[in-house]
Design a protein that fits this description.
Elements: H1 3-7, H2 11-24, H3 31-36, H4 46-59, E1 65-69, E2 74-78, H5 83-90, H6 99-111, E3 114-115, H7 116-123, H8 129-137, E4 141-146, E5 154-158, H9 160-165, H10 182-187, H11 190-195
Antiparallel strand pairs: 1-2, 3-5, 4-5
Helix pairs in contact: 2-4, 6-8
Length: 201
């Protein structure tokens, strides 16, 4: 795209380009990524891109698909309130996770950074290496350091990938813990969050 074309790019054309880019991307796209890729040869500013994203979010408010801002950027996903119906479409492809794995993930999410030993103390049972491996391979947790105690055990914390999958922009958006357990709070709407991947399939 030449500079001349870029200067004649209308607000609607900009929205269409950003919309198509986010829809076709395998992962969320940030404003910076948009500016460095599909908008690289245009004169579109960061503020103009943000404005176009805001207008797209507004346009999608009344639809079955929404544009959301996550930790890593923007993505399209199906609305959580449609999860029950959409589960009928995904029931054979949605990944299944064990209760033990989800309990481990919940404890890491709410008490991070935390060691494997501390997780085992809370749960009262040992944490399998497979659970830690699965969570790591899924891109949901990572080692962020080591606790300064004998043995220097690894400290585990969640990643941006975890936030993206569960539809969160930051850890502050985790469900508040009142009378619920960490597991119950984390599992609320898990199936609906899995449905958010429908858009890109």
């Amino acid at each position: 795209m030449t500079q001349e074309v870029a200067t004649t790019l209308t607000a609607k054309q900009l929205q269409h380009l950003i919309e198509a880019a986010i829809f076709s991307a395998a992962k969320p796209l940030s404003v910076t990524q948009l500016l460095e890729t599909v908008l690289a040869d245009t004169s579109v500013t960061r503020e103009q891109a943000k404005q176009a994203l805001s207008e797209l979010q507004r346009d999608y408010r009344s639809r079955g698909i929404e544009l959301v801002k996550l930790a890593s950027g923007y993505r399209f996903q199906t609305r959580p309130e449609l999860a029950k119906q959409l589960n009928k479409v995904r029931q054979n492809s949605a990944p299944k996770y064990s209760r033990a794995l989800l309990e481990t993930l919940a404890l890491i999410a709410y008490q991070q950074p935390i060691t494997r030993g501390e997780i085992e103390t809370v749960r009262g049972v040992s944490v399998s290496s497979q659970s830690i491996r699965t969570l790591t391979e899924r891109g949901w947790i990572k080692v962020v350091g080591h606790k300064e105690v004998p043995g220097r055990p690894a400290l585990l914390a969640t990643t941006k990938g975890f936030l993206d999958y569960f539809g969160l922009a930051s850890l502050s958006e985790l469900p508040k813990l009142s009378d619920e357990t960490a597991l119950q709070a984390l599992l609320v709407g898990t199936s609906s969050r899995q449905n958010k991947e429908l858009v890109n399939e």
